[in-house]
Amino acid sequence: MLKKCLFPVAGYGTRFLPATKAMPKEMLPLVNKPLVQYGVEEAIEAGLTEIGFVTGRGKRAIEDHFDTNFELEQQIAGTGKERYLDCVRQVIDSASFSYTRQGEMRGLGDAILQGQRLIGDEAFAVVLADDLCLNEEVGVLGQMVQLYKQFRCSIVAVEEVPKEQIHKFGVIAGNEIKPDLFQVTDMVEKPSAEDAPSNMAIIGRYILTPDIFDLIRETPPGKNGEVQITDALLTQAKRGCVLAYRFKGRRFDCGSVDGFIEATNHVYKNIYLPGEKG
């Protein structure tokens, strides 16, 4: 049974400097809610209520956000402003939160490995908060959890991307075993368009089986001298099975300024305004 979800949030957010000099990029607001809260809400919706964060220096605001602020709550108690805290109170009441640190930035694979002390020996999900995924029905993690219950192996979420963006992603090749579901045969981290095995890019949603931790330990640094989760997953695919799922929904790349602005406009028009009117 899946119940744990890991959020690697130790990155510096350099593309948003100077805003992220003293504030975690994951706390940048999409209208009135920080980016990371959307990911946590998606995890809770999928039934993953044990939330772990792999943090780093300067990330204390994330811990404070998913905690009670007695002074603030006392100040606005009984006023119309109290309702603005309803959504985060619901999140805090629906999940447990734990934290560990990645002392050195050595790549996503290493960040996930640091999370082992929070996960233990069980399957778990990974969410990269930079990728905002929205779907009017079942969220992307919820879709993947249903697949995990059937196949019991590691699963990565993928979407087709334009050729000129291939170099930004890990890319898979695979055999389609049912509509939108592929058994992975190859994975390449940030290939050139000419060397990419397909146009199906891995985005920030994973379900991983616990043997991934030993595979990460065996994985030498790869692209950019970092420990790449794609390299460990490729080993896992060759030794057993890794699936890639072309998810239903819309993804926004909130790790880029353009994608963040696009996501903000979408949330304002389609989520915030209808909620205020309702």
Q: Mind explaining what this structure looks like?
A:
This protein has 278 residues and is an alpha/beta fold. The protein has one domain (4-277): Spore Coat Polysaccharide Biosynthesis Protein SpsA, Chain A, CATH 3.90.550.10. The chain is built from ten helices and 13 strands. The protein has helices spanning 35-45, 60-65, 70-76, 86-94, 108-114, 116-119, 140-151, 212-218, 229-239, 257-277, and strands at 4-8, 29-30, 33-34, 50-55, 96-101, 124-127, 131-134, 154-160, 170-178, 181-189, 200-208, 242-246, 250-253. The strands form three sheets. The chain has a five-stranded mixed β-barrel with strand order 8-11-9-10-12. The chain has a two-stranded antiparallel ribbon with strand order 2-3. Helix 5 (108-114) crosses helix 8 (212-218) and helix 8 packs across helix 9 (229-239).
